[in-house]
Write a structure and sequence with these properties.
It is built from 15 helices and 14 strands. The chain is of the alpha+beta class and about 450 residues long. It has 2 domains: about 230 residues, Cytochrome Bc1 Complex, Chain A, domain 1 (2-Layer Sandwich), CATH 3.30.830; about 180 residues, Cytochrome Bc1 Complex, Chain A, domain 1. Strand 3 and strand 4 form a beta hairpin.
C-alpha cells in the first residue's frame, strides 16, 4: 500500500518486474506547485495510452438551486474553448481514432480519452484546454439544456434507472445530496443559467481539486511536461496550493428505511430491496464484497440460481453495493412480471434471512473470492482500467493498493467475517423501491 503524501515533487509509487527482472509496470506521481497531481503508470508492451482528468466535485456537492450543475457543466466543457470550437475538439481526437468521453458521479467528475501512444500529447492538450479554458456561452447553455432534458426523459423511460433513482431517494431523502439524481430534474435544469454554472466552474475546477491520471506506453517526465503546457493556459497553474485531500467520512450519513413505489406503464415490475451498509473506507468492505458476489454476483450466485433457474420468477436478478465517503448500501435488484412480484419479494427476503442466520457455504466463499480476484485482474488488462484505478486511488482513497495486496485482502476473508457482516447488514430495516404497472 502506498499512501499519497501531500508534499514533494516527483516520486515512484511502485515498480513491478517480470521473472527476468524487466520492468512491466511503474507508477509515478508528481505534484505541481499549483496543487495539480499527475499520476502515471507505464505499461510494458502497450501501444495505447489513456488519460483521465478527475475533479473532486459531483452531484452531492450541489445545493438545491444547483441540482444537476455538475453534469450540466460536464456537457458544456465539450462545447468549445478560446482556441477550439466544439467541432475542433471532436475532429482532433476523431482524426487519430481516439475515444473520448466524460462521466459525472455523486462525488467526482472525470473526462477521459484513449489514444495510440504517439497521440497522447494531443489528448493531453485537448483535455487540458477543455477543463481549464472553456468559454461556456449563453448559446451553448441553451442548446445543451435541451440535450440534457432529453437525457433525463430517456432515463425516465428506463425502468432500471427509475427504480434505482427511487431507491436512492428513499434511502437518503429526495432533497439530500446523496438522494438526488445526478442529472438533475427537468425543473432544476430549466432553472439553471449561465451565471450560476460559470461560478460553479470557477469555484471547483481548480488545480488543487484535480488529478490527471495516465496509463499506457508513456514516459512520466514527458507526460508532466505536456500537462504543464496544456493546463498552463491563461496562468491556470499559477500560484501555490496544497492538493485537497480525499473526501472523508466525518459524521455518518444515515440511511432511511421505508417503502416507496411509483406507477409506470412498463410491462415489468422492477424492484430494489436493500439495507444500509458501510462507507468505502470500512475494512469490512472486503467481506461484504465476497458476500455480495456469492449472493447475487453471477449465474452461480444464490439469488440467480433460486429466483431464475429453480423458480423461473425473473430474467434479471443481481445484488450490488454502493460505497460513499460517509455512507453505503447493499441491495438486490429484480425485474419480473407483476403477477410474480409477491413471490419474488418473499424469495429474496427468505434468502437474505438465511444468509443473515447462517452465512454462506465453503463453496460459495471459494467462488466469491475467485470471482472477485478474476474480475480484479481481468479488469486491469487495458490502459483505460489502469487509468481509472490510478485516478480513484489518488482522488478518492488517498492510497494505492498493490494488486497483490488487494488479492491478499480478498483471500484473507473468512466465513466468520462474512457471517458477521451478513448478520449485521441483513438484520437491518429494509429500503424497498417498486416501479411498474399499478
Amino acid at each position: 500500500m502506498t499512501t499519497m503524501q501531500r508534499s514533494g515533487t516527483t516520486r515512484t509509487l511502485s515498480t513491478l518486474r517480470d521473472s527476468g527482472g524487466a520492468v512491466t509496470s511503474r507508477v509515478r506521481r508528481t505534484v505541481l506547485p499549483s496543487g495539480l497531481r499527475i499520476v502515471t503508470e507505464q505499461m510494458a508492451g502497450a501501444r495505447s495510452a489513456t488519460i483521465g482528468v478527475w475533479v473532486d466535485v459531483g452531484s452531492r456537492d450541489e445545493t438545491t438551486r444547483l441540482h444537476g450543475c455538475s453534469h450540466f457543466l460536464e456537457h458544456l466543457l465539450f462545447k468549445g474553448t478560446r482556441e477550439r470550437s466544439a467541432l475542433d475538439i471532436s475532429v482532433a481526437l476523431d482524426a487519430v481514432g481516439g475515444e473520448f468521453n466524460a462521466f459525472t458521479a455523486k462525488e467526482y467528475t472525470c473526462f477521459h480519452a484513449r489514444v495510440l501512444d504517439e497521440d497522447l500529447p494531443l489528448a493531453i492538450d485537448v483535455l487540458g484546454d477543455m477543463v481549464t479554458s472553456s468559454v461556456i456561452t449563453d448559446e451553448d447553455v441553451e442548446a445543451e439544456r435541451e440535450v440534457i432534458l432529453d437525457e433525463i426523459a430517456m432515463h425516465d423511460d428506463d425502468p432500471d434507472d427509475v427504480v434505482h433513482t427511487l431507491f436512492a431517494e428513499q434511502a437518503w431523502g429526495a432533497t439530500s445530496p446523496l438522494g438526488r439524481s445526478i442529472a438533475g430534474t427537468a425543473e432544476s435544469i430549466t432553472a439553471l443559467d449561465r451565471a450560476r454554472i460559470w461560478r460553479f466552474y470557477q469555484r471547483h475546477y481548480r488545480p488543487e481539486h484535480m488529478v490527471v491520471s495516465v496509463a499506457g506506453n508513456l514516459d512520466h517526465a514527458a507526460v508532466v511536461r505536456h500537462v504543464r503546457r496544456a493546463f498552463g493556459r491563461g496562468d491556470w497553474l499559477s500560484g501555490d496550493a496544497e492538493p485537497v485531500g480525499p473526501r472523508r467520512g466525518g459524521r455518518r450519513v444515515r440511511v432511511r428505511p421505508g417503502e416507496v413505489e411509483t406507477t409506470r406503464p412498463f410491462e415489468q415490475v422492477n424492484v430494489v430491496l436493500g439495507m444500509e451498509a458501510f462507507g468505502r473506507e470500512d475494512d469490512r468492505r472486503f467481506a461484504l464484497g465476497v458476500l455480495n458476489t456469492a449472493l447475487g454476483g453471477g449465474t452461480s450466485s444464490r439469488l440467480f440460481q433460486e429466483i431464475r433457474e429453480r423458480r423461473g420468477l425473473a430474467y434479471s436478478v443481481y445484488s450490488f453495493t454502493s460505497h460513499y465517503a460517509d455512507s453505503g448500501v447493499v441491495g438486490v435488484a429484480v425485474g419480473c412480471l407483476p403477477a410474480k412480484l409477491d413471490e419474488v419479494l418473499t424469495t429474496v427476503r427468505l434468502e437474505l434471512s438465511r444468509v443473515a442466520a447462517h452465512g454462506i457455504t465453503d463453496d460459495e466463499l471459494v467462488r466469491g473470492k475467485g470471482q472477485l480476484r478474476g474480475g480484479l485482474v481481468l479488469g486491469l488488462e487495458d490502459s483505460a482500467s489502469r487509468m481509472i484505478r490510478l485516478g480513484k486511488a489518488e482522488l478518492v482513497h488517498d492510497e494505492l493498493l498493490e494488486i497483490d495486496e488487494v488479492m491478499a485482502r480478498i483471500d484473507a476473508v473468512t466465513l466468520d467475517e462474512v457471517r458477521d457482516v451478513a448478520a449485521e447488514v441483513f438484520s437491518r430495516k429494509e429500503i424497498l423501491a417498486v416501479v411498474g404497472p399499478h
